[in-house]
Structure formats: C-alpha cells, structure tokens
Amino acid sequence: xxxxxxxxxxxxxxxxxxxxxxxxxxxxxxxxxxxxxxxxxxxxxxxxxxxxxxxxx
Length: 57
Fold this sequence. Notes:
Shape: globular
Distance between the termini: 33 Å
Order of helices and strands: EEE
Radius of gyration: 11 Å
Helix content: under 10%
Number of helices: 0
Oligomer: single chain
Structural class: mainly beta
C-alpha cells in the first residue's frame, strides 16, 4: 500500500469517542479531523491495522 492508495473511506473510527466528519478523498499529510471528543482509535479497514489512538477532551 502506498500513501496515494489510502482513502478516508478506508478508515474506521473505533473507540468511545467521535470525530465528524472525516475529510474526503485520499489521506494526505496535513489533513485535519475536527469536532472530536473522547478516545478515537483509527483503523485501516483493509488490513484491520490500527493507525493511531488519540484522546480528546
């Protein structure tokens, strides 16, 4: 998988928090997710790999 092959639609939010909405299109450096609260775990759906765990107030 190359960076240009990863789309926001391929990323799932798991955990007790929420972020809404995700950006659209390819995932790129500098993309920003907003309106987040709680604990967010980002998972890459095709491989079930965890991308990151983030905690928001």
